[in-house]
Amino acid sequence: MSGTEEKTSAEQISADNQNAQPGVETNEENPKKMSTSEKMDRLLRGTSSEAMKKEIDKLRKESARYRVSSREETEKNQVLQERADSVQKELEALKKTHRELFVMRKLDKAGCVKSDLVSKDIPVDCEDIDTFIESYKEENGFLFKAQKQSLGGTFKPSKIVNLSPSQQMDTYIRSALGRN
Fold first, then answer.
1. pLDDT per residue over 112-169, tens digit each?
2. What gap in Å lies between CA 124 and CA 100, rounded to an integer?
3. How many other C-beta atoms can be found within 10 angstroms of the C-beta atom of residue 136?
4. Which among 50, 54, 65, 124 counts the fewest CB atoms within 10 Å?
């Protein structure tokens, strides 16, 4: 072969593509702008085995890049899913604790002596807790203390009963010295 007959591989690829697809403009400079169907047509219609090998190598590299990025995305998603699961479990535990405290507060207001034990008797799916507590109170009266009856006023008489100022001072001194 003489020097004029030799072609570089790039020239050969473009010549093969022009021979394979007459009238269709190839996109050698911007291979990323080609659609996948155009790439497949180019691969299938290429007459040179060298061009096909280069295209296959290029596609293998591209698929390897996608596999690596897919693994990274999968790992990130897995970490996020684990975090979401742990947060969900924590939320469920907090909801359960909140409900228990809510029921115990209602029982304490109703006058229950052992609200922590009685709260376990209330079903989880109970919608109206107040009516359940009232019926439970009627059935098990010994668990509830009687409500205090207020007779009015909050007056508390002082311990010092109408003493003169000198007598008050004497009581203060005696109480300070411990001589009552």
1. 888 888 888 888 888 888 888 888 888 888 888 876 666 666 666 666 667 888 888 8
2. 9
3. 19
4. 124
Torsion-angle region of 150 (φ positive above 0: left; ψ -120 to 50: alpha; else: beta): beta
What's the token pair of residue 68? 């690596």
Nearest-angstrom CA–CA distance, 177 and 170: 11
Specify the residue for token string 């228990």.
Answer: 100
Of 12, 84, 89, 80, the C-alpha closest to 50 is 12
- Is the Cβ–Cβ distance between 21 and 51 less than 8 Å? no
What integer pLDDT is reported at residue 82 of this predicted model? 95
